[in-house]
Each structure stands twice: as C-alpha cells, then as structure tokens.
Automatic annotation (TrEMBL):
GO terms for cellular component: cytoplasm. InterPro entries: TPC11 (IPR021773). Residues 54-158 form the Trafficking protein particle complex subunit domain. This is Trafficking protein particle complex subunit 11.
Amino acid sequence: MKCSFPYISKQKDSTFAFRLGDWDFFLLSSHPSSAVLTGLEPPDPQKELKGIMALKYKEYHDVDHSMIIIPLLSSAVAQFKKYKCPRMKRQLTVEMGEEYYCYKDYKQALTLLKHVLWDYRVEKWRPIVSSILTTALRSAYLSANIQDYISLGIEMISNWILCSTDEKSILQNNINNVLQGKPLFAMPGISEQDNKEADKLWQEAIQNHKEPLIFTIQMTSIVPFIECKAGFVSENYMADQRITVTVYL
C-alpha cells in the first residue's frame, strides 16, 4: 500500500488531521479528551490504526536513521576522548562501525572496527573480539578487500575465536580460492542479494589484480590460527642419552 502525505495539520493540542491518498480526513490523537475538545465524534479505531501504520511506513522508508545515529555517536566519541575514557570511546567506536555496516558503508565500517580490534585482542576479550572480527570480516568480504579479508580470515579460523566449524571451513576454502584466483563461496549470515553483489566485486578485484598476491601479515598482532606445543617422548632420560622431542601442530 502506497501512502502519500499532502499535508499534516494540527487541529488542537495533540490532535492532528491526516490525509492518506484519496482517503477522507480523520483525527489521530493521543489525548483522551480530544473528541470533546474538538466537538467531534471519537475517532474510528480502524482509521486510527491505519494512520499509525502509515506513519511507521513513512518513517521506515523516508527517514535515514543511520545518518542521524552516526553523528551522535561521533560526538559522544569526541566527548569521551576529551575526558580520557578509552573504554567508552572504544565501545562507541564499535557501535559506530556497526552502524556504518548497517548503512552499507563497508569500507568505513572496516576502518573503524580494525582500529579498535587491537585493544580488545590485548585485553583477551574473547566474545567481543569474536563479534567485532565477524563484522569486520563481513565488511571486508562485502567490499572485496583482498588483504583485509585474508588477514582477518586467518585470524577467524583460530580455535580461540567463537565461530561455528562450518563457517570456519567455508572461510578457509575462500582464502584458498582468493589465493588461486577462483570464485568465493557465499558467506553465511549475509543476505543472498548482498552475496551476489559481493561476488561481482570479487570477480572484478581478482581480474584487476594481475600481479601475484604478496603481502605481509604480522602474526604477533593477531590471534594465531596455528597452535604449536612440544613434548618429550619419555618421562625419564639418562645422562648423555639422546632426547627425542615431539612437536604438535
């Protein structure tokens, strides 16, 4: 149902008159005595419900909530930065990155989330790191950012990161496909339409990247995806006896 709003006029106090397309005027009021004040009959509940639905429809389709929320978050970040509250600043930066992700500005979302990811890694906030890493990885995927997708993907497949085995398997296959110049599998948690758009971007990115994919990843700054430990084969050894050490990966 398509609704139009030629005008919205205020009748008295909290009573307003609306016109929806070719429908007649009706009153929508939050004041219980509005009918008495205007000298009219009480409003039709069905028409009032339709009016509320029309307002919700208009707000959902015409109001850009992200562009209202993001400047407020930015002002809050500046405020907490001024008074030296790093934890609140990081938290609001994460929320801003998530809002950019909802707004489908994936490059900006990726920039903000990568900026704070290091701090949460150092403090060993496992659930928070996993959540931020998931959103950052999806942003890299949807923006076809090859280097960030591989570096974040390598970190994502670590046992320390909270993620399902199936998602890690798809991610590992996608990393191999990127390195070999093959199409990627659709990532879970992303709509079919967004996956199709991302697939086009990845095809263009791989075709335009003619040189070999060579870049450096500082493994000391990310969560390692390979675990290594060493152990002795025997519990006891004699002096001058050859020792055998087993390395587990």
